[in-house]
Amino acid sequence: MGIELARYAKRKVASALGQRVDATPIIVEGRSVDGAFVTITIENNLRGCMGYVGVRQPLLKAVERAAMAAAFEDPRFPPLRSGELPLSVFEVTLLGPLRPLASRAPQELAASIQLGVHGLLVRRMGFSGLLLPQVAVEYGWGASEFLSQTCLKAGLPEDCWCQPDTEVYLFEGKWFSESG
């Protein structure tokens, strides 16, 4: 089902761009998720990545919503153009529920994270940053570096995850690429 979800995301974007698409339905049997992200790359370069966490919704709706946001609303990039679609690779990440990490001891906090399984969300003083599970694997980070990079993504000091007023959450994520 994973590859089909990534292809579904791409078909939804293709349709929004006015292209004719295969309307083969995906059977998901009423499944819901706690969040979804879609990542779009062209020649292994990021072209868009957007999604939602902490909002339980039907699976296909979550994937479509994230796909549209990644293609057309990522503030780092102009909206995806029709000519870019054949070059693009879509990846879908399905998220489980957010779980707060209660420990403030840096070693215990880092030990709670399973690299490649858990993603992170950091919140502090109105700022937030989220990194998907595959990011730590792609960059070869350990748990402490993953925490620090999530803080930096939020625009916060890299060691803010050690501070008592910082909320740290983890979530499980499974990702699927249309390229397999």
UniProtKB/TrEMBL annotation:
Entry-linked SUPFAM superfamilies: AMMECR1-like (SSF143447)
InterPro entries named in the record: AMMECR1, AMMECR1_dom_sf, AMMECR1_domain, AMMECR1_N, AmmeMemoSam_A
Coiled-coil ranges (or none): none
Pfam families cross-referenced by the UniProt entry: AMMECR1 (PF01871)
Domain named AMMECR1: residues: 1-180
Superkingdom: Archaea
Record-linked PANTHER family: AMME SYNDROME CANDIDATE GENE 1 PROTEIN (PTHR13016:SF0), AMMECR1 HOMOLOG (PTHR13016)
Name of the molecule in the record: AMMECR1 domain-containing protein
